[in-house]
Amino acid sequence: MTEIMKGMGKLSKEERPVIGQLANEVRQGITGLIEEKKKELEAAILEQKLSKEKIDVTLPGRKAPVGSHHLLGSVIRDVQDLFIGMGFSIAEGPEVETDTYNFEKLNLPKNHPARDMQDSFYLSEDILLRTHTSPMQARTLEAHHGRGPVKIICPGKVYRRDNDDATHSHQFMQIEGLYVDRNVRLSDLKGVLTVFAKHVFGADREIRLRPSFFPFTEPSVEMDISCFRCGGHGCNVCKGTGWIEILGAGMVHPNVLRMSGFDPAVYSGFAFGMGPERIAMLKYGIEDIRHFYTDDSRFLSQFKRS
Length: 306
Fold this sequence. Notes:
By secondary structure, this protein is α+β, with helices and mostly antiparallel strands. The chain folds into two domains: 2-44; 71-303, BirA Bifunctional Protein, domain 2, CATH 3.30.930. It has helices spanning 2-6, 15-52, 71-85, 99-102, 135-143, 186-201, 254-259, 276-284, 297-300; strands at residues 89-90, 96-98, 127-129, 150-159, 171-181, 207-214, 217-226, 243-252, 268-274. A seven-stranded mixed beta sheet has the order 1-4-5-9-8-7-6, sandwiched between helices. Strands 2-3 form a two-stranded antiparallel ribbon. Strand 6 and strand 7 form a beta hairpin. 26% of the residues are buried. Tetramer of two alpha and two beta subunits. Belongs to the class-II aminoacyl-tRNA synthetase family. Phe-tRNA synthetase alpha subunit type 1 subfamily.
């Protein structure tokens, strides 16, 4: 076609229109055939590609691994939800604390022998990693300037110099509670702890309070729950006694109230402290506290919640 078009100049005036029209018709015909063949080839290539990349939508899909809440986090949230429902609020504070709030305002002056109960990580003479979440109780009482009510729980990490083994850790969790108001009684504490025990360990749980000693409460008690494995008949979990020690508590010591600006003649209160690790270990039969901190997915996956 190119050669024909080049030869148009040699034709006579009469031949040029005829040959030109015919050449255009032939060119259009050939171009149309080429385009038609091109579409056929493209369709064939696409069909071949689709057949190779065919997906059977009826096959089951591959499930992506999905994470879940850590068991300790779930226990803490469960306890928090319970106490929030009873009118408590959550108080949080620094993990690096002063000796004043960690000990002195909790009726533990310097050289007090009870300080030996909590071997501490000191960063300086007056700064340490908190050994309990009780400093938040003192800070919150102080912030209320001697006027109640004060009704809080204090969850968080605490630190003590301890050798890590199946039941001990240098870092662990605590949840402490405090209620200060007019006419707060020991029976109020027992009622709150009974609700807690039944919620966490089962509706048929019973509790008992045994006399104990804590510098920041007077009187002080240890709380036991009836064994949820054997129903109080005796087993390896309760060591044959039918009871399991679960937490410490007591009425807030007058000195603690006084140092935070509250008049012990007007206000009274109770406090308690529990360990989420101990709760989880008892409830789920976990024998080694280190499982909580090793991030072993084989362990953690056992406690996924739907």
